[in-house]
TrEMBL record:
The gene is panC. One of its GO terms (molecular function) is pantoate-beta-alanine ligase activity. It is an enzyme of class 6 (ligase). It holds the Pfam family Pantoate_ligase. Catalyzes the condensation of pantoate with beta-alanine in an ATP-dependent reaction via a pantoyl-adenylate intermediate. Its EC number is 6.3.2.1. Keywords: ATP-binding, Cytoplasm, Ligase, Nucleotide-binding, Pantothenate biosynthesis. The reaction proceeds by a bi uni uni bi ping pong mechanism. It comes from Micromonospora rubida. Beta-alanine binds at residue 59. It catalyses: (R)-pantoate + beta-alanine + ATP = (R)-pantothenate + AMP + diphosphate + H(+). The lineage of its organism: Bacteria, Bacillati, Actinomycetota, Actinomycetes, Micromonosporales. This is Pantothenate synthetase. Pathway: Cofactor biosynthesis; (R)-pantothenate biosynthesis; (R)-pantothenate from (R)-pantoate and beta-alanine: step 1/1.
Length: 282
């Protein structure tokens, strides 16, 4: 049975009754099969699975989609039930931020100002602040985050380590449509034509991975990825396409690396990434 709680008090009471390990999956709702994969990963590792559903206003810029972000609690609860979640915490804004927006926010440091942080100033301050609050409220042993939001996963991991939060942060591989499009709650904004254009992101990643598998160096891998992005259906506007090391430090030249892409498709901003292995330099 999946229990829904809306207040901190109800949450504390429900958590106190749990014995064994707790795995948390934090979401903003609009759950899709990518989230269900996170829930299943949590189910496999933890005795109890707790899902949080909260559209966090702190992580939306003034011109972003906070108002139109899909809010689908009834179907989200169905998905949680299907995936065997024990507890869903779905607070409203006043419950999360009873004193209004917090004056003190988690500073993500330099990494939070790069990539997504460059295009979305303040985004990671908002994400890490709510994630830290949710860690405090839910006290999980394990926390599951999708690799699709790779910079978020990296920063949450760093925050847990740097702030001694006693939680294991687990990354879960991205779920894709059969044609390669990474699942995202924002895909529902795309028209049929835009959805076609959105395939440029995964095509760029695939080309980069293939090039690395053929032993090409970092420069050539990036060039192949750019070429594939550019030859997709018209309509995707590139924000960034970069190669970093797996911890998002700039400029790997050999070994494990990450290829990350962000692009605008119409009014929708999409991101994606892939693990890559660069050949050793000869
Ligand atoms: O990835 C998300 O859905 C959000 O950024 C998160 C982690 C739930 C924080 O609001």
């Amino acid at each position: 049975m999946t229990e829904l709680v809306r207040t901190r008090e109800e949450l504390a009471k429900a958590c106190a009754a749990l014995t064994g390990t707790v795995g948390v999956v934090m979401t903003m709702g609009a759950l899709h099969s990518g989230h269900e994969t996170l829930l299943r990963a949590a189910r496999e590792r933890a005795d109890h699975v707790l899902v949080t559903i909260f559209v966090n206003p702190l992580q939306f810029g003034p011109n972003e989609d906070f108002d139109r972000y899909p809010r689908t609690l009834a179907t989200d609860l169905e998905a949680c039930r299907r995936a065997g979640a024990d507890l869903v915490f779905a607070p409203d804004r006043e419950e999360m931020y009873p004193d209004g927006e917090p004056r003190v926010r988690v500073n993500p440091g330099l990494l939070g100002e790069d990539l997504e942080g460059l295009s979305r100033p303040g985004f990671f301050h908002g994400v890490l602040t709510v994630v830290l609050k949710l860690f405090q409220l839910t006290r999980p042993d394990l926390a599951f985050f999708g690799e699709k939001d790779y910079q978020q996963l990296t920063l949450v991991r760093r925050m847990a380590r740097d702030f001694d939060v006693p939680v294991e942060v687990v990354g879960v591989p991205t779920v894709r449509e059969p044609d390669g499009l990474a699942l995202s709650s924002r895909n529902r904004y795309l028209s049929a034509q835009e959805r076609e254009a959105a395939l440029s992101l995964s095509a760029a990643l695939r080309a980069g991975v293939d090039a690395a598998d053929r032993g090409l160096d970092a420069g050539a891998v990036l060039a192949e990825a750019h070429r594939a992005f550019g030859s997709g259906a018209a309509g995707a506007r590139l924000d960034y396409l970069v190669l970093t090391d797996p911890d998002l430090e700039p400029g790997p030249v050999a070994g494990p690396a990450r290829l990350l892409v962000a692009a605008w498709v119409g009014a929708t901003r999409l991101i994606d990434n892939a693990a890559i292995r660069l050949a050793p330099r000869s």
